[in-house]
């Protein structure tokens, strides 16, 4: 494990946290110069793991303020959902400007639900790891976000890759489950735990094919984001036979031998390369089940992808699924996004997971 990349990752995240508290997805990739709730929540969790609680606190304060700023849209969405009406433009966006305003570009996959579930989960982790008391605005925003997810969870939406808006995605439902379960504890509302159990039952009944979880309802193949069903959202235990079968299929269909992980088998974005954050996610799973050697192999591969400045990209254009698509994406949007804060977050999470399961603590302050 490389302390230099550890320090670089922390520094890159801190350097790219806006004064308002938001984390920019990538500082020099034009279409990623926003803050996503999902990416940011994982980044805040990573900062909690390395003892940078003030950074995580600022992010969660930004999230609460952003949700409350757009509360009227959320309340209109809840009311429409109660009457089974189309939402139209009434929903919380998945990404906002660093100041918390809606992005102005057209055609974005803005209706995504997993980010708000991930945020609720990450707030619970922050409160536990930092010892902070719950601010009133976090409580208010959390209550609204939980009600929003509770009302809309069955609506089809874009997946975490900004694709397939007409489908229901197990990863999205898992994030909602994890968020509602977390909020039922830190928000003091056990009714949301009961709702979350209903979502879990739905997943177990509708999102399984041939003994493993699937990319979306009605599909027969996997997506690497399904790792989230176990780690961190806890729909099933990491050792559950359904999860083990899902991970085996991810290994068979999406893992490059001794390398990284593809998103899904037909990915064409930048040719469908190996994603840094997915290597970290798979390694996190292996650390959870005590397979440290496999987790360390993935961590080592991640470290090898950093450039001389310690920056991790979004993906690596090696072992491409669809090589003919690589150049058109470069011509359209430029080189692959580097550094991607979500990649650095997953590196920190895996690094700390390996330390934790070896019983060496969960703070890096002694190494910095």
Structure, described:
- With 368 residues, this protein is mostly helical.
- It has one domain: Alpha/alpha barrel (Glycosyltransferase).
- Helices cover 51% and strands 3% of the residues.
- It contains 13 helices and six strands.
- The strands form three sheets. It has a two-stranded antiparallel ribbon with strand order 1-2. Strands 3-4 form a two-stranded antiparallel sheet. Strands 5-6 form a two-stranded antiparallel ribbon.
- The radius of gyration is 19 Å and the shape is globular.
| Series of secondary-structure elements, N-terminal to C-terminal | HEHHHEHHHHEEHEHHEHH
Structural class designation: mainly alpha
CATH class, please?
Mainly Alpha
Beta-strand fraction estimate: under 5%
- Give the overall average pLDDT: 95
Distance between the termini: 14 Å
Low-confidence stretches: 360-368
Number of H- or I-type helical stretches: 13
The biggest beta sheet is recorded as: 2 strands, antiparallel
Given the C-alpha coordinates, what overall shape results? globular
Q: Roughly how much helix do the residues carry, as a percent range?
A: 40-55%
Q: In CATH terms, what is the fold-level topology?
A: Glycosyltransferase
Task: Note the topology.
Blueprint: H1 3-15, E1 35-36, H2 37-49, H3 53-69, H4 71-82, E2 95-96, H5 114-130, H6 136-152, H7 170-186, H8 191-206, E3 208-209, E4 212-213, H9 241-254, E5 274-275, H10 276-288, H11 292-304, E6 315-316, H12 326-333, H13 341-357
Antiparallel strand pairs: 1-2, 3-4, 5-6
Helix pairs in contact: 1-13, 2-3, 2-5, 2-13, 3-5, 3-6, 4-6, 5-7, 6-7, 7-8, 10-11, 10-13, 11-13
């Amino acid at each position: 494990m490389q302390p230099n990349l550890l320090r670089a990752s922390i520094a890159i995240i801190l350097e790219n946290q806006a004064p308002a508290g938001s984390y920019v997805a990538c500082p020099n990739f034009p279409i990623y110069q926003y803050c996503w709730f999902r990416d940011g929540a994982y980044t805040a969790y990573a900062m909690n793991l390395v003892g940078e609680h003030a950074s995580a606190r600022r992010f969660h304060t930004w999230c609460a303020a952003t949700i409350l700023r757009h509360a009227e849209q959320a309340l209109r969405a809840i009311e429409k959902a109660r009457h089974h009406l189309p939402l139209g433009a009434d929903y919380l966006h998945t990404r906002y400007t660093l100041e918390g305003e809606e992005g102005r570009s057209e055609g974005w996959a803005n209706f995504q639900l997993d980010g708000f579930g991930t945020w609720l989960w990450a707030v619970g982790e922050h409160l536990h790891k930092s010892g902070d008391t719950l601010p009133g605005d976090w409580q208010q925003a959390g209550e609204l976000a939980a009600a929003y997810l509770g009302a809309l969870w069955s609506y089809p939406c874009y997946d975490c890759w900004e694709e397939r808006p007409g489908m229901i995605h197990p990863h999205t439902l898992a994030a909602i489950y994890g968020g509602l379960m977390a909020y039922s504890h830190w928000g003091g509302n056990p009714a949301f735990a009961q709702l979350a159990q209903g979502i879990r039952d739905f997943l177990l009944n509708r999102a399984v094919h041939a003994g493993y979880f699937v990319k979306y309802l009605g599909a027969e193949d996997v997506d690497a984001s399904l790792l989230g069903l176990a780690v961190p959202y806890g729909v099933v235990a990491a050792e559950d036979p359904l999860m083990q079968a899902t991970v085996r299929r991810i290994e068979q269909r999406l893992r490059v031998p001794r390398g990284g992980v593809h998103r899904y088998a037909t990915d064409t974005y930048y040719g469908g390369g190996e994603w840094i954050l997915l290597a970290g996610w798979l390694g996190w799973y292996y650390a959870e089940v005590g397979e440290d050697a496999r987790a360390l192999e993935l961590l080592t591969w991640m470290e090898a992808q950093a450039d001389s400045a310690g920056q991790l990209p979004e993906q690596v254009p090696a072992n491409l699924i669809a090589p003919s698509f690589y150049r058109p994406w470069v011509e359209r949007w430029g080189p692959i996004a580097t550094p991607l804060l979500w990649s650095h977050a997953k590196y920190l999470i895996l690094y700390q997971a390996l330390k934790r399961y070896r019983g060496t603590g969960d703070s890096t302050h002694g190494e910095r």
